[in-house]
Amino acid sequence: MKRTLKFSGLAFLTVIILWACAGESPKQVAEKFLTAVSVGDFEAAKKWATKESHTALDMAAANDKDHIAEPHKIQIGEETISENKATVVYKDNDDEKVLKLSKEDGKWKAAFSKSDLDGGAATNAEKFLNAFAHGDMNGAKKYATRDAQASLDMMAGTFEAKKAKPDKIEMGDIKYEGDRASVFYHENGVLKTLDMVKEDGKWKAAWTKTSTTKLDTDELEEEVIEAMDGEAEE
Hints:
Layout: H1 2-22, H2 26-38, H3 42-45, H4 53-63, H5 66-69, E1 74-82, E2 85-92, E3 95-104, E4 107-110, H6 121-133, H7 137-142, H8 146-153, H9 156-164, E5 169-177, E6 180-187, E7 190-199, E8 202-205, E9 213-214, H10 217-233
Antiparallel strand pairs: 1-2, 2-3, 3-4, 5-6, 6-7, 7-8, 7-9
């Protein structure tokens, strides 16, 4: 009996040690990171972020004003894990967003980047394009300007065709010009751009039937170099 209890105690201790070594889940890390960011405490947020994320957090701290005046309301959603990468869906003042995380020194850390500072331009562009590519008109309209929504309404036939054969979308770089941005992407291997604009304080796709521009390789290379040069200057 004593031997059984001894082994049971040892097994229990092993489970506790393994649980402690496992560390916090992506969802737990995301909550702590986003809570710190929501109140403008970017130094505290660094504890839960990758080393590469620190530069972007410093930039956010230098430009941040609204969090100090009114902290954002954060609601944590579901997590998705794929080996050493993870994503956590969350709401920032009812605006749905996605936080990327990665394993660093065996622990989950928030992979915060410059694109996360835009309030969702890159994220909303990707959601719009993926919804469009799969024929989800209502999903695309959610991330489109009011003018773009009217244009989308006139393309019911196109959306039905895309449901049967979705386009393949691969996201590229993004170039900012104040409250406007150009998003580079591949659609079925073809290089294109999508214009994004601020509407009611949120990034929306300024899409029309002829607004997505096909670029040849030289044009895209020139645009991407300009975008990278602009980031370097900042």
